[in-house]
Design brief:
The complex is a heterodimer of chains A (114) and B (229).
Chain A lengths: L2 H19 L6 E7 L6 H12 L8 E7 L2 E4 L5 E3 L15 E5 L3 E9 L1
Parallel strand pairs in A: 1-2
Antiparallel strand pairs in A: 1-6, 3-4, 3-5
Helix pairs in contact in A: 1-2
Chain B lengths: L1 E9 L2 H16 L3 E7 L5 H12 L5 E7 L4 H8 L4 E6 L8 H8 L9 E5 L16 E7 L6 H4 L1 H6 L2 E5 L11 H11 L4 E4 L8 H14 L1 H5 L5
Helix pairs in contact in B: 1-4, 2-3
The chains are: A alpha+beta (114), B alpha/beta (229).
Protein backbone atom coordinates (compact mmCIF):
# COMPACT_ATOMS: atom_id res chain seq x y z
CA UNK A 1 0.00 0.00 0.00
CA UNK A 2 2.61 2.50 -1.13
CA UNK A 3 -0.20 4.74 -2.42
CA UNK A 4 -0.31 6.39 1.00
CA UNK A 5 3.37 7.31 0.64
CA UNK A 6 2.69 8.55 -2.92
CA UNK A 7 -0.24 10.66 -1.67
CA UNK A 8 2.07 12.23 0.91
CA UNK A 9 4.59 13.04 -1.86
CA UNK A 10 1.86 14.78 -3.88
CA UNK A 11 0.71 16.63 -0.79
CA UNK A 12 4.16 17.98 0.06
CA UNK A 13 4.95 18.85 -3.58
CA UNK A 14 1.76 20.90 -3.86
CA UNK A 15 2.37 22.66 -0.53
CA UNK A 16 5.88 23.49 -1.79
CA UNK A 17 4.50 24.92 -5.05
CA UNK A 18 1.93 26.99 -3.12
CA UNK A 19 4.67 28.51 -1.02
CA UNK A 20 7.14 29.05 -3.87
CA UNK A 21 4.58 30.61 -6.22
CA UNK A 22 2.43 32.21 -3.51
CA UNK A 23 -0.68 30.36 -4.58
CA UNK A 24 -3.95 29.77 -2.79
CA UNK A 25 -4.89 26.15 -2.18
CA UNK A 26 -5.73 24.51 -5.52
CA UNK A 27 -9.28 23.35 -6.14
CA UNK A 28 -7.92 20.58 -8.32
CA UNK A 29 -4.65 18.71 -8.78
CA UNK A 30 -4.22 17.08 -12.18
CA UNK A 31 -2.45 13.72 -12.19
CA UNK A 32 -1.53 11.40 -15.03
CA UNK A 33 -1.12 7.79 -13.98
CA UNK A 34 0.09 5.24 -16.48
CA UNK A 35 -1.30 1.73 -16.27
CA UNK A 36 2.25 0.38 -15.84
CA UNK A 37 3.25 2.85 -13.10
CA UNK A 38 2.64 0.38 -10.29
CA UNK A 39 0.25 2.80 -8.62
CA UNK A 40 -3.47 2.09 -8.22
CA UNK A 41 -5.48 5.29 -8.89
CA UNK A 42 -8.38 4.35 -6.59
CA UNK A 43 -6.10 3.57 -3.66
CA UNK A 44 -4.27 6.85 -4.30
CA UNK A 45 -7.52 8.88 -4.26
CA UNK A 46 -8.59 7.13 -1.08
CA UNK A 47 -5.23 7.86 0.58
CA UNK A 48 -5.21 11.49 -0.51
CA UNK A 49 -8.71 12.06 0.89
CA UNK A 50 -7.62 10.68 4.25
CA UNK A 51 -4.48 12.79 4.64
CA UNK A 52 -5.98 16.05 3.34
CA UNK A 53 -8.54 16.37 6.15
CA UNK A 54 -7.99 19.41 8.35
CA UNK A 55 -5.12 20.69 6.17
CA UNK A 56 -4.95 23.62 3.70
CA UNK A 57 -5.82 21.08 0.97
CA UNK A 58 -9.00 19.84 2.67
CA UNK A 59 -11.17 21.04 -0.25
CA UNK A 60 -8.74 20.01 -3.01
CA UNK A 61 -9.76 17.25 -5.42
CA UNK A 62 -7.61 14.97 -7.54
CA UNK A 63 -8.31 14.86 -11.27
CA UNK A 64 -6.74 11.62 -12.42
CA UNK A 65 -6.10 10.86 -16.07
CA UNK A 66 -5.50 7.14 -16.51
CA UNK A 67 -3.03 6.66 -19.33
CA UNK A 68 -3.18 3.32 -21.14
CA UNK A 69 0.05 1.59 -21.98
CA UNK A 70 1.43 1.60 -25.53
CA UNK A 71 4.33 -0.38 -26.84
CA UNK A 72 6.28 -1.23 -29.96
CA UNK A 73 7.30 -4.71 -31.00
CA UNK A 74 11.08 -4.95 -31.23
CA UNK A 75 10.85 -7.70 -33.87
CA UNK A 76 8.37 -6.26 -36.36
CA UNK A 77 7.83 -2.68 -35.22
CA UNK A 78 4.06 -2.94 -34.75
CA UNK A 79 2.69 -0.39 -32.24
CA UNK A 80 -0.22 -1.50 -30.08
CA UNK A 81 -2.01 -1.09 -26.74
CA UNK A 82 -0.41 -3.15 -23.98
CA UNK A 83 -2.46 -5.28 -21.66
CA UNK A 84 -1.13 -6.77 -18.45
CA UNK A 85 0.37 -9.07 -17.57
CA UNK A 86 2.32 -10.42 -20.58
CA UNK A 87 2.72 -8.22 -23.66
CA UNK A 88 2.32 -10.08 -26.93
CA UNK A 89 2.68 -8.58 -30.39
CA UNK A 90 -0.62 -9.10 -32.25
CA UNK A 91 1.30 -9.17 -35.54
CA UNK A 92 4.24 -11.52 -35.03
CA UNK A 93 3.66 -13.04 -31.56
CA UNK A 94 6.88 -11.71 -30.02
CA UNK A 95 7.16 -10.99 -26.29
CA UNK A 96 10.03 -8.57 -26.89
CA UNK A 97 8.11 -5.33 -26.54
CA UNK A 98 9.43 -1.85 -25.83
CA UNK A 99 7.14 0.20 -23.60
CA UNK A 100 6.48 3.57 -25.25
CA UNK A 101 3.87 5.01 -22.90
CA UNK A 102 2.12 4.18 -19.64
CA UNK A 103 4.89 4.33 -17.05
CA UNK A 104 4.23 7.89 -15.92
CA UNK A 105 3.17 9.05 -12.50
CA UNK A 106 3.02 12.82 -13.00
CA UNK A 107 1.49 15.90 -11.47
CA UNK A 108 0.26 17.63 -14.63
CA UNK A 109 -1.41 20.79 -13.36
CA UNK A 110 -2.83 22.77 -10.46
CA UNK A 111 -6.12 24.60 -10.80
CA UNK A 112 -6.06 27.54 -8.40
CA UNK A 113 -8.61 30.24 -7.61
CA UNK A 114 -7.85 33.66 -9.19
CA UNK B 1 -12.87 31.92 -11.53
CA UNK B 2 -9.77 29.84 -11.54
CA UNK B 3 -6.62 29.44 -13.57
CA UNK B 4 -4.54 26.43 -14.48
CA UNK B 5 -0.84 26.18 -13.76
CA UNK B 6 1.00 23.50 -15.72
CA UNK B 7 3.48 21.45 -13.71
CA UNK B 8 4.18 18.25 -15.69
CA UNK B 9 6.60 16.79 -13.18
CA UNK B 10 6.97 13.27 -11.82
CA UNK B 11 5.38 12.78 -8.40
CA UNK B 12 8.64 11.02 -7.48
CA UNK B 13 10.90 13.73 -8.98
CA UNK B 14 12.82 14.16 -5.73
CA UNK B 15 13.12 10.37 -5.32
CA UNK B 16 14.49 10.04 -8.86
CA UNK B 17 16.98 12.84 -8.28
CA UNK B 18 18.22 11.16 -5.09
CA UNK B 19 18.38 7.73 -6.74
CA UNK B 20 20.48 9.15 -9.60
CA UNK B 21 22.78 10.81 -7.10
CA UNK B 22 23.17 7.51 -5.23
CA UNK B 23 23.94 5.69 -8.49
CA UNK B 24 26.66 8.21 -9.35
CA UNK B 25 28.09 7.96 -5.84
CA UNK B 26 28.21 4.15 -6.01
CA UNK B 27 29.83 4.23 -9.44
CA UNK B 28 32.41 6.80 -8.42
CA UNK B 29 33.42 4.57 -5.52
CA UNK B 30 33.45 1.43 -7.65
CA UNK B 31 30.66 -0.27 -5.71
CA UNK B 32 28.36 -2.68 -7.57
CA UNK B 33 24.87 -2.43 -6.06
CA UNK B 34 22.12 -5.00 -6.19
CA UNK B 35 18.56 -4.41 -4.96
CA UNK B 36 17.21 -7.80 -3.87
CA UNK B 37 13.42 -8.18 -3.80
CA UNK B 38 11.06 -11.10 -3.14
CA UNK B 39 8.04 -12.22 -1.18
CA UNK B 40 8.70 -12.81 2.52
CA UNK B 41 10.36 -16.19 3.00
CA UNK B 42 11.84 -16.75 -0.47
CA UNK B 43 15.32 -16.90 1.07
CA UNK B 44 16.92 -13.50 0.49
CA UNK B 45 18.89 -13.47 3.72
CA UNK B 46 20.05 -17.07 3.34
CA UNK B 47 21.28 -16.32 -0.18
CA UNK B 48 23.20 -13.34 1.19
CA UNK B 49 24.75 -15.53 3.91
CA UNK B 50 25.91 -18.13 1.36
CA UNK B 51 27.19 -15.36 -0.94
CA UNK B 52 29.09 -13.53 1.80
CA UNK B 53 30.64 -16.78 3.07
CA UNK B 54 31.81 -17.74 -0.42
CA UNK B 55 32.99 -14.40 -1.77
CA UNK B 56 34.20 -12.51 1.28
CA UNK B 57 37.85 -13.39 0.85
CA UNK B 58 37.74 -11.88 -2.65
CA UNK B 59 35.14 -9.11 -2.28
CA UNK B 60 34.33 -6.65 0.47
CA UNK B 61 30.57 -7.04 0.80
CA UNK B 62 28.16 -4.69 2.55
CA UNK B 63 24.48 -5.26 3.24
CA UNK B 64 21.62 -2.87 3.92
CA UNK B 65 18.85 -5.01 5.36
CA UNK B 66 15.35 -3.56 5.17
CA UNK B 67 12.63 -4.95 7.37
CA UNK B 68 9.41 -3.66 8.84
CA UNK B 69 10.73 -4.59 12.30
CA UNK B 70 13.90 -6.07 13.84
CA UNK B 71 17.60 -6.05 12.91
CA UNK B 72 17.81 -9.84 12.62
CA UNK B 73 18.80 -9.89 8.94
CA UNK B 74 21.62 -7.37 9.38
CA UNK B 75 22.91 -9.43 12.32
CA UNK B 76 22.88 -12.56 10.14
CA UNK B 77 24.80 -10.80 7.34
CA UNK B 78 27.39 -9.60 9.85
CA UNK B 79 27.73 -13.06 11.39
CA UNK B 80 28.31 -14.49 7.90
CA UNK B 81 31.29 -12.18 7.51
CA UNK B 82 29.97 -9.07 5.76
CA UNK B 83 32.46 -6.19 5.86
CA UNK B 84 29.56 -3.99 6.99
CA UNK B 85 25.85 -4.54 7.58
CA UNK B 86 23.25 -1.99 8.55
CA UNK B 87 19.58 -2.50 9.28
CA UNK B 88 16.78 -0.22 8.09
CA UNK B 89 13.70 -0.69 10.21
CA UNK B 90 10.88 0.90 8.25
CA UNK B 91 8.38 0.75 11.14
CA UNK B 92 5.50 -0.25 8.93
CA UNK B 93 6.50 1.12 5.54
CA UNK B 94 6.27 -1.62 2.91
CA UNK B 95 9.34 -0.67 0.85
CA UNK B 96 12.68 1.15 0.99
CA UNK B 97 13.04 4.70 -0.38
CA UNK B 98 16.25 6.43 -1.57
CA UNK B 99 16.53 8.71 1.46
CA UNK B 100 16.67 5.62 3.72
CA UNK B 101 19.69 4.40 1.75
CA UNK B 102 21.32 7.85 1.96
CA UNK B 103 20.87 7.88 5.74
CA UNK B 104 22.18 4.35 6.10
CA UNK B 105 25.38 4.81 4.07
CA UNK B 106 26.23 8.21 5.56
CA UNK B 107 28.86 6.68 7.87
CA UNK B 108 30.00 3.93 5.49
CA UNK B 109 33.36 4.17 3.67
CA UNK B 110 32.07 3.22 0.22
CA UNK B 111 35.53 3.17 -1.33
CA UNK B 112 36.35 0.16 0.87
CA UNK B 113 33.33 -1.80 -0.44
CA UNK B 114 33.14 -3.79 -3.69
CA UNK B 115 29.59 -5.10 -3.59
CA UNK B 116 26.56 -3.70 -1.78
CA UNK B 117 23.35 -5.67 -1.40
CA UNK B 118 20.17 -3.81 -0.58
CA UNK B 119 17.84 -6.41 0.86
CA UNK B 120 14.42 -4.87 0.37
CA UNK B 121 11.33 -5.42 2.50
CA UNK B 122 9.69 -8.74 1.56
CA UNK B 123 7.02 -7.55 -0.88
CA UNK B 124 6.60 -7.90 -4.67
CA UNK B 125 4.37 -4.85 -5.12
CA UNK B 126 5.64 -1.62 -3.60
CA UNK B 127 9.44 -2.01 -4.00
CA UNK B 128 8.87 -2.21 -7.78
CA UNK B 129 8.10 1.50 -7.84
CA UNK B 130 11.21 2.79 -6.05
CA UNK B 131 14.62 3.19 -7.68
CA UNK B 132 17.30 3.04 -4.99
CA UNK B 133 20.22 3.89 -7.25
CA UNK B 134 21.05 0.22 -7.75
CA UNK B 135 22.75 -1.16 -10.86
CA UNK B 136 20.56 -4.25 -10.89
CA UNK B 137 17.24 -5.25 -9.42
CA UNK B 138 17.20 -8.99 -8.70
CA UNK B 139 13.84 -10.61 -8.03
CA UNK B 140 13.79 -13.88 -6.17
CA UNK B 141 11.13 -16.54 -5.96
CA UNK B 142 11.22 -20.00 -4.48
CA UNK B 143 9.80 -23.39 -5.37
CA UNK B 144 7.35 -23.32 -2.45
CA UNK B 145 5.53 -20.41 -4.15
CA UNK B 146 3.40 -20.44 -7.30
CA UNK B 147 5.14 -20.70 -10.67
CA UNK B 148 2.62 -18.11 -11.91
CA UNK B 149 4.11 -15.38 -9.72
CA UNK B 150 5.73 -13.45 -12.61
CA UNK B 151 2.27 -13.08 -14.17
CA UNK B 152 0.76 -11.89 -10.89
CA UNK B 153 3.42 -9.25 -10.19
CA UNK B 154 4.40 -8.14 -13.70
CA UNK B 155 5.68 -4.67 -12.79
CA UNK B 156 8.34 -6.16 -10.52
CA UNK B 157 9.48 -8.83 -12.98
CA UNK B 158 9.51 -6.28 -15.82
CA UNK B 159 11.67 -3.85 -13.84
CA UNK B 160 14.18 -6.50 -12.77
CA UNK B 161 17.23 -7.53 -14.78
CA UNK B 162 17.78 -10.76 -12.90
CA UNK B 163 15.58 -13.56 -11.51
CA UNK B 164 16.68 -16.10 -8.93
CA UNK B 165 14.69 -19.29 -8.35
CA UNK B 166 15.64 -20.62 -4.92
CA UNK B 167 14.98 -23.92 -3.10
CA UNK B 168 15.49 -26.12 -6.16
CA UNK B 169 16.18 -28.96 -3.68
CA UNK B 170 12.43 -29.01 -3.00
CA UNK B 171 11.42 -29.48 -6.66
CA UNK B 172 9.05 -32.41 -6.93
CA UNK B 173 7.76 -31.96 -3.38
CA UNK B 174 5.51 -29.07 -4.46
CA UNK B 175 3.48 -28.35 -7.58
CA UNK B 176 6.00 -25.72 -8.70
CA UNK B 177 7.13 -26.39 -12.29
CA UNK B 178 10.45 -24.68 -12.89
CA UNK B 179 10.06 -24.63 -16.70
CA UNK B 180 6.68 -22.97 -16.34
CA UNK B 181 8.10 -20.37 -13.94
CA UNK B 182 10.85 -19.52 -16.44
CA UNK B 183 8.40 -19.38 -19.33
CA UNK B 184 6.05 -17.09 -17.36
CA UNK B 185 8.96 -14.83 -16.43
CA UNK B 186 10.17 -14.59 -20.03
CA UNK B 187 6.68 -13.71 -21.21
CA UNK B 188 6.93 -10.67 -18.93
CA UNK B 189 10.61 -9.92 -19.53
CA UNK B 190 12.47 -11.85 -22.26
CA UNK B 191 15.80 -10.34 -21.20
CA UNK B 192 15.80 -11.63 -17.61
CA UNK B 193 19.00 -13.37 -16.57
CA UNK B 194 17.82 -16.41 -14.61
CA UNK B 195 19.64 -18.33 -11.87
CA UNK B 196 18.27 -21.60 -10.47
CA UNK B 197 19.82 -22.54 -7.16
CA UNK B 198 19.48 -24.04 -3.73
CA UNK B 199 20.96 -22.22 -0.77
CA UNK B 200 20.50 -25.45 1.19
CA UNK B 201 22.51 -27.82 -1.02
CA UNK B 202 24.65 -25.27 -2.86
CA UNK B 203 23.37 -26.39 -6.28
CA UNK B 204 23.61 -23.60 -8.85
CA UNK B 205 25.36 -21.14 -6.54
CA UNK B 206 28.59 -21.05 -8.57
CA UNK B 207 26.95 -19.39 -11.57
CA UNK B 208 25.48 -16.75 -9.26
CA UNK B 209 28.85 -16.10 -7.59
CA UNK B 210 30.55 -15.80 -10.99
CA UNK B 211 28.00 -13.23 -12.09
CA UNK B 212 28.60 -11.16 -8.94
CA UNK B 213 32.38 -11.31 -9.38
CA UNK B 214 31.94 -10.16 -12.97
CA UNK B 215 29.68 -7.27 -11.84
CA UNK B 216 32.13 -6.14 -9.16
CA UNK B 217 35.14 -6.46 -11.47
CA UNK B 218 33.46 -4.36 -14.15
CA UNK B 219 33.41 -1.44 -11.70
CA UNK B 220 36.98 -1.88 -10.49
CA UNK B 221 38.43 0.64 -12.98
CA UNK B 222 36.32 3.32 -11.31
CA UNK B 223 37.79 2.36 -7.94
CA UNK B 224 41.42 2.53 -9.02
CA UNK B 225 40.89 5.90 -10.69
CA UNK B 226 40.11 7.28 -7.26
CA UNK B 227 37.53 9.71 -6.14
CA UNK B 228 37.70 13.15 -7.79
CA UNK B 229 35.23 14.76 -5.41
Amino acid sequence: MHELAIAENIFSTVLGEMEARRLAAPVKIGLCIGSLSGVAPDALSFSFDIIKAETPLAETRLDIERRPARGACQQCGRRFDLEEPAFLCPNCGSHRIQVKDGRQLDITYLEVPE
Amino acid sequence: MSRTIKLDQPVLAEHLRRADHLRRTFRRNGVAVLNLVSSPGAGKTTLLERTIEALSPRLAIAVIAGDVQTQIDADRARAAGARWAGPVETNGTCHLEPWMIEDRIADLDLAAIDLLFIENVGNLVCPAVYDLGEHHKAVMLSTVEGDDKPLKYPVMFRNASTMIINKTDLLGLTDFQIDRAEENARRINPDLVIFKLSCKTGEGLTAWFDRLLEMANSLLPHKTQGNPE
